[in-house]
Amino acid sequence: MKKVIVLFLIACISLFQLSLLSSCSKKSEDIVNTPGADCSNPAIQKGPKFSAVESIINSKCISCHNGNQSPNLTTACNIVNEWYGINYRCVEVKTMPQSGPLPTTEQSAITAWVDAGHKYTD
Ligand code: HEC
User: Which atom of ligand 1 lies nearest, measured to the CA of 85?
Assistant: First the structure.
């Protein structure tokens, strides 16, 4: 019987340590400082330059890039992560969207976001 109690106590202590560890790794400033994590944190507002790009993507790209065609551009985090390809295909070589280059105002909106640092909060 004593052995069972000792084992039970050990189990409790290790569970307690685990919960301490996970609460440490979830401190809010860690989430804010992890690159890319702000895009999935509802407490953090998207920036105006990112919002402009997101609405271009929503109206001109996700008809195809909806998960069936790579890259998947259906979430804010995916757009942030795909900034390079978006800029390359829409502004540099202008091969996206497939129907022809974006209007220059929309290309400039992408450039403004990329130059600002291509973050969710820009
Ligand atoms: C009519 C469907 C369609 C639309 C709309 C479209 N794409 Fe694409 N996209 C494709 C297809 C098909 C490919 C793969 C062939 C290729 O690379 O050209 C592709 C490829 C890409 C790639 C390269 C993927 C890779 O892995 O190299 C990027 C980046 C991209 N698209 C971004 C966009 C953006 C940004 C928009 C909106 C401005 C957009 N696309 C609109 C169909 C589309």
Answer: 29
